[in-house]
Amino acid sequence: MVSLREKAEELGITLSDRQLAQFETYYELLHEKNKVMNLTAITERDDVILKHFVDSLALVKADCGFSSQRILDVGTGAGFPGIPLKIAFPDLKVVLLDSLNKRVKFLEEVIEALGLGNIEAIHGRAEDYARQKDYREQFDLVVSRAVANLSTLSEYCLPYVKVSGMFLPYKSGKIEEELSQGKHAVKLLGGKMEEVVSFVLPGTDMDRTILKIKKQKATPKRYPRKAGLPSKEPIS
Protein backbone atom coordinates (compact mmCIF):
# COMPACT_ATOMS: atom_id res chain seq x y z
CA MET A 1 0.00 0.00 0.00
CA VAL A 2 1.39 3.40 -1.00
CA SER A 3 2.10 5.80 1.87
CA LEU A 4 1.21 9.37 0.90
CA ARG A 5 3.18 10.67 3.87
CA GLU A 6 6.35 8.90 2.69
CA LYS A 7 5.95 9.94 -0.95
CA ALA A 8 5.35 13.55 0.10
CA GLU A 9 8.49 13.45 2.24
CA GLU A 10 10.46 12.33 -0.83
CA LEU A 11 9.37 15.66 -2.34
CA GLY A 12 10.39 17.56 0.80
CA ILE A 13 6.79 18.02 2.00
CA THR A 14 5.78 17.13 5.57
CA LEU A 15 2.05 16.36 5.92
CA SER A 16 0.32 16.54 9.30
CA ASP A 17 -2.28 14.03 10.46
CA ARG A 18 -4.97 16.59 9.64
CA GLN A 19 -3.67 17.06 6.10
CA LEU A 20 -3.52 13.29 5.57
CA ALA A 21 -7.13 13.07 6.80
CA GLN A 22 -8.10 15.76 4.26
CA PHE A 23 -6.48 13.74 1.48
CA GLU A 24 -8.36 10.65 2.69
CA THR A 25 -11.68 12.51 2.59
CA TYR A 26 -10.81 13.85 -0.86
CA TYR A 27 -10.14 10.32 -2.11
CA GLU A 28 -13.43 9.03 -0.69
CA LEU A 29 -15.43 11.86 -2.28
CA LEU A 30 -13.66 11.34 -5.62
CA HIS A 31 -14.23 7.59 -5.54
CA GLU A 32 -17.91 7.97 -4.65
CA LYS A 33 -18.71 10.74 -7.15
CA ASN A 34 -16.87 8.91 -9.92
CA LYS A 35 -19.58 6.21 -9.78
CA VAL A 36 -22.12 8.68 -11.15
CA MET A 37 -20.00 11.04 -13.26
CA ASN A 38 -16.73 10.71 -15.13
CA LEU A 39 -14.13 12.58 -13.08
CA THR A 40 -11.13 10.32 -13.59
CA ALA A 41 -10.20 7.02 -15.20
CA ILE A 42 -7.82 6.46 -12.27
CA THR A 43 -9.78 5.06 -9.33
CA GLU A 44 -7.65 2.49 -7.47
CA ARG A 45 -6.48 3.95 -4.17
CA ASP A 46 -2.72 3.54 -4.74
CA ASP A 47 -3.05 4.87 -8.28
CA VAL A 48 -4.95 7.95 -7.10
CA ILE A 49 -2.30 8.60 -4.45
CA LEU A 50 0.56 8.33 -6.94
CA LYS A 51 -0.92 9.60 -10.20
CA HIS A 52 -3.08 12.39 -8.79
CA PHE A 53 -1.99 13.38 -5.26
CA VAL A 54 1.79 12.85 -5.46
CA ASP A 55 1.77 13.96 -9.11
CA SER A 56 0.13 17.25 -8.11
CA LEU A 57 2.49 17.81 -5.17
CA ALA A 58 5.48 17.18 -7.45
CA LEU A 59 5.01 20.74 -8.74
CA VAL A 60 7.21 21.74 -5.78
CA LYS A 61 10.10 20.66 -8.01
CA ALA A 62 9.58 23.94 -9.86
CA ASP A 63 10.93 25.61 -6.70
CA CYS A 64 8.48 28.52 -6.78
CA GLY A 65 7.85 28.80 -3.06
CA PHE A 66 4.18 27.83 -2.77
CA SER A 67 3.72 30.09 0.26
CA SER A 68 1.00 32.74 0.23
CA GLN A 69 0.87 33.32 -3.52
CA ARG A 70 -2.32 33.64 -5.52
CA ILE A 71 -2.50 30.62 -7.79
CA LEU A 72 -4.83 29.70 -10.66
CA ASP A 73 -5.35 26.10 -11.82
CA VAL A 74 -6.61 26.15 -15.42
CA GLY A 75 -8.61 23.11 -16.59
CA THR A 76 -8.53 21.68 -13.08
CA GLY A 77 -10.93 18.78 -13.78
CA ALA A 78 -11.36 16.89 -10.50
CA GLY A 79 -9.14 19.42 -8.73
CA PHE A 80 -5.61 18.52 -9.82
CA PRO A 81 -3.15 19.97 -9.03
CA GLY A 82 -4.92 22.82 -7.22
CA ILE A 83 -6.58 21.01 -4.32
CA PRO A 84 -3.59 18.84 -3.31
CA LEU A 85 -1.40 21.96 -3.38
CA LYS A 86 -3.92 23.84 -1.23
CA ILE A 87 -4.06 20.97 1.30
CA ALA A 88 -0.26 20.80 1.51
CA PHE A 89 0.25 24.58 1.51
CA PRO A 90 -2.76 26.09 3.35
CA ASP A 91 -1.59 29.70 2.90
CA LEU A 92 -2.02 29.55 -0.88
CA LYS A 93 -4.91 31.54 -2.33
CA VAL A 94 -6.32 29.21 -4.99
CA VAL A 95 -8.76 29.60 -7.88
CA LEU A 96 -9.85 26.44 -9.72
CA LEU A 97 -11.17 27.02 -13.26
CA ASP A 98 -13.06 24.40 -15.24
CA SER A 99 -15.40 24.53 -18.23
CA LEU A 100 -17.78 21.82 -16.96
CA ASN A 101 -20.27 22.96 -14.33
CA LYS A 102 -20.79 19.46 -12.91
CA ARG A 103 -17.10 19.26 -12.07
CA VAL A 104 -17.19 22.70 -10.45
CA LYS A 105 -20.11 21.58 -8.24
CA PHE A 106 -18.03 18.56 -7.17
CA LEU A 107 -15.07 20.82 -6.38
CA GLU A 108 -17.29 23.01 -4.22
CA GLU A 109 -18.39 19.90 -2.29
CA VAL A 110 -14.74 18.93 -1.75
CA ILE A 111 -13.77 22.44 -0.59
CA GLU A 112 -16.61 22.45 1.96
CA ALA A 113 -16.00 18.89 3.18
CA LEU A 114 -12.28 19.55 3.67
CA GLY A 115 -12.87 22.88 5.42
CA LEU A 116 -10.58 24.76 3.02
CA GLY A 117 -10.49 28.57 3.04
CA ASN A 118 -9.17 31.04 0.47
CA ILE A 119 -10.08 28.77 -2.42
CA GLU A 120 -12.85 29.01 -5.00
CA ALA A 121 -14.01 26.98 -7.98
CA ILE A 122 -15.32 28.88 -11.00
CA HIS A 123 -17.14 27.64 -14.07
CA GLY A 124 -16.25 28.95 -17.52
CA ARG A 125 -13.82 28.95 -20.39
CA ALA A 126 -10.27 30.14 -19.94
CA GLU A 127 -10.62 32.48 -22.93
CA ASP A 128 -13.55 34.31 -21.29
CA TYR A 129 -12.31 34.81 -17.72
CA ALA A 130 -8.97 36.07 -19.06
CA ARG A 131 -10.77 39.18 -20.33
CA GLN A 132 -12.13 40.10 -16.88
CA LYS A 133 -10.07 42.60 -14.88
CA ASP A 134 -10.51 40.61 -11.65
CA TYR A 135 -8.60 37.73 -13.24
CA ARG A 136 -6.42 39.08 -16.04
CA GLU A 137 -2.78 39.37 -14.93
CA GLN A 138 -3.80 38.89 -11.29
CA PHE A 139 -1.97 35.66 -10.38
CA ASP A 140 1.53 34.98 -9.06
CA LEU A 141 1.41 31.40 -10.36
CA VAL A 142 -0.71 29.74 -13.02
CA VAL A 143 -0.57 25.95 -13.21
CA SER A 144 -2.11 23.44 -15.56
CA ARG A 145 -1.98 19.69 -16.00
CA ALA A 146 -4.18 20.01 -19.08
CA VAL A 147 -3.30 17.99 -22.16
CA ALA A 148 -3.35 20.86 -24.68
CA ASN A 149 -0.16 21.61 -26.62
CA LEU A 150 2.11 24.34 -25.28
CA SER A 151 1.01 27.01 -27.80
CA THR A 152 -2.66 26.54 -26.94
CA LEU A 153 -2.02 26.22 -23.21
CA SER A 154 0.08 29.38 -23.19
CA GLU A 155 -2.73 31.35 -24.81
CA TYR A 156 -5.15 30.01 -22.19
CA CYS A 157 -2.86 30.68 -19.22
CA LEU A 158 -0.31 33.46 -19.75
CA PRO A 159 -2.96 36.24 -19.84
CA TYR A 160 -3.71 35.40 -16.18
CA VAL A 161 -0.10 35.65 -14.96
CA LYS A 162 0.95 38.98 -13.49
CA VAL A 163 4.16 40.51 -14.83
CA SER A 164 7.07 38.83 -12.98
CA GLY A 165 4.81 35.88 -12.10
CA MET A 166 5.24 32.31 -13.36
CA PHE A 167 3.31 29.97 -15.64
CA LEU A 168 3.96 26.29 -14.84
CA PRO A 169 2.59 23.92 -17.49
CA TYR A 170 3.01 20.34 -16.25
CA LYS A 171 3.59 17.67 -18.87
CA SER A 172 3.88 13.89 -19.11
CA GLY A 173 6.79 12.27 -20.90
CA LYS A 174 9.32 13.99 -23.12
CA ILE A 175 8.32 17.24 -24.77
CA GLU A 176 11.23 18.47 -26.93
CA GLU A 177 9.17 18.84 -30.12
CA GLU A 178 6.26 20.55 -28.37
CA LEU A 179 8.69 22.89 -26.63
CA SER A 180 10.25 23.90 -29.93
CA GLN A 181 6.84 24.54 -31.52
CA GLY A 182 5.55 26.55 -28.55
CA LYS A 183 8.44 28.99 -28.06
CA HIS A 184 7.06 31.64 -30.40
CA ALA A 185 3.65 31.63 -28.67
CA VAL A 186 5.28 31.95 -25.23
CA LYS A 187 7.28 34.99 -26.36
CA LEU A 188 4.36 36.62 -28.19
CA LEU A 189 2.18 36.33 -25.06
CA GLY A 190 4.78 38.02 -22.84
CA GLY A 191 6.55 34.99 -21.42
CA LYS A 192 10.11 33.73 -21.37
CA MET A 193 11.15 30.10 -20.95
CA GLU A 194 13.38 30.04 -17.87
CA GLU A 195 13.90 26.37 -17.10
CA VAL A 196 12.79 22.86 -18.04
CA VAL A 197 12.53 20.64 -14.95
CA SER A 198 12.42 16.93 -15.83
CA PHE A 199 12.15 14.06 -13.34
CA VAL A 200 10.63 10.65 -12.69
CA LEU A 201 7.52 10.73 -10.48
CA PRO A 202 8.36 9.17 -7.06
CA GLY A 203 7.17 5.56 -6.79
CA THR A 204 6.69 5.20 -10.57
CA ASP A 205 8.63 4.97 -13.83
CA MET A 206 6.69 7.90 -15.32
CA ASP A 207 8.54 10.86 -16.82
CA ARG A 208 7.32 14.31 -15.89
CA THR A 209 8.33 17.79 -17.07
CA ILE A 210 7.52 21.17 -15.54
CA LEU A 211 8.17 24.21 -17.71
CA LYS A 212 9.06 27.39 -15.83
CA ILE A 213 7.83 30.32 -17.90
CA LYS A 214 8.32 33.80 -16.46
CA LYS A 215 5.95 36.61 -17.42
CA GLN A 216 8.17 39.45 -18.60
CA LYS A 217 5.64 41.85 -20.05
CA ALA A 218 1.89 42.27 -20.33
CA THR A 219 0.06 39.99 -22.75
CA PRO A 220 -1.21 41.90 -25.83
CA LYS A 221 -4.89 42.76 -25.42
CA ARG A 222 -5.95 40.71 -28.44
CA TYR A 223 -5.07 37.49 -26.58
CA PRO A 224 -6.63 35.16 -25.79
CA ARG A 225 -8.62 35.04 -29.00
CA LYS A 226 -12.30 34.13 -28.87
CA ALA A 227 -13.36 30.77 -27.42
CA GLY A 228 -12.29 27.78 -29.47
CA LEU A 229 -9.61 29.48 -31.59
CA PRO A 230 -6.57 28.74 -29.36
CA SER A 231 -7.18 25.01 -29.72
CA LYS A 232 -8.33 25.03 -33.38
CA GLU A 233 -5.60 27.40 -34.62
CA PRO A 234 -2.65 27.41 -32.17
CA ILE A 235 -0.21 30.30 -32.47
CA SER A 236 2.62 29.05 -34.69
Automatic annotation (TrEMBL):
EC number: 2.1.1.-
Keyword field: Cytoplasm, Methyltransferase, rRNA processing, S-adenosyl-L-methionine, Transferase
Residue segments, region Disordered: 216-236
GO MF terms held by the record: rRNA (guanine-N7-)-methyltransferase activity
InterPro entries named in the record: rRNA_ssu_MeTfrase_G, SAM-dependent_MTases_sf
Localization annotation: Cytoplasm
Domain of life: Bacteria
Pfam families registered for this protein in UniProt: GidB
Amino acid composition bias (Basic residues), ranges on this chain: 216-225
First-level EC class: transferase
Gene Ontology cellular component annotations, sorted alphabetically: cytosol
Binding site for S-adenosyl-L-methionine: 75, 80, 126-127, 145
Family: Belongs to the methyltransferase superfamily. RNA methyltransferase RsmG family.
Function: Specifically methylates the N7 position of a guanine in 16S rRNA.
Protein name (database record): Ribosomal RNA small subunit methyltransferase G
Source organism of this protein record: Anaerostipes rhamnosivorans
